[in-house]
Specification:
It is built from 8 helices and 2 strands, in the order ααααααββαα. The chain is mostly helical. The protein has a two-stranded antiparallel ribbon. The protein is elongated. The relative contact order is 0.13.
């Protein structure tokens, strides 16, 4: 039973840890909510990774001279170097999943920066490299490359827009999870040493 300021106390509690219990409950709620949001975000990221891996796999099969009919018949756009960089964004996703299993704030911080390096940076570079082609297509309606009669540059910018949001949300949820876990840990420390907390408060 949770202790309450005016209600019954939990067994083994004198009621002085009421605020700590409320803080822990809040941090736990925030952690559960943001874990769910992160899982949805990572699912979208996994879908994007699958699309890029599938594209690069087609070129890998061609490079190794696999002459399967369905591979040779696919009109796949030429891969760009940012795509090879971006596929390493599976690393922060894997690290995030591991951190969520252990509520590890240090691991989630590493995932945050890896999302920046392996996710946002290559997306930004790819968008910059394709900007001139997008402007040309917008002004003159001419595309340098087509994918089943659809301009590849438009497909790329749709991908950039979705991937950008996925990475930004992932980094945001990394921040929220790290904060929730750190506050929960500090709250537990205060509960374990209530006398020192009271003495510090009196000194202040």
């Amino acid at each position: 039973m949770m202790s309450s300021r005016f209600g019954p106390r939990a067994v083994g509690s004198d009621g002085s840890d009421f605020r700590h219990r409320q803080k822990v409950a809040t941090h736990y709620r925030d952690s559960v909510l943001n874990k769910y949001r992160m899982k949805v975000t990572l699912s979208l990221h996994a879908l994007l990774l699958f699309l890029i891996w599938a594209k690069l796999s087609v070129y890998a099969l061609r490079w190794f001279d696999f002459t399967l009919h369905f591979v040779s018949s696919i009109q796949m756009p030429q891969p760009e170097f940012w795509e090879y960089w971006w596929i390493f964004s599976f690393i922060p996703s894997w690290l995030t999943v591991d951190a969520m299993q252990r509520n590890d704030s240090s691991a989630i911080l590493k995932a945050y920066f890896l999302f920046l390096i392996c996710g946002l940076f290559p997306i930004a570079i790819g968008a910059g490299l394709n900007l001139n082609e997008l402007v040309t297509y917008t002004k003159h309606g001419r595309a340098e490359e087509l994918f089943y009669d659809f301009p590849v540059v438009v497909i790329r910018y749709i991908f950039f827009a979705i991937a950008l949001q996925v990475h930004v949300f992932a980094m945001y949820f990394c921040t929220k999870l790290g904060q929730a876990w750190q506050k929960a840990t500090s709250g537990m420390s205060e509960a374990n040493y209530p006398d020192s907390s009271l003495s510090n408060a009196k000194r202040q």
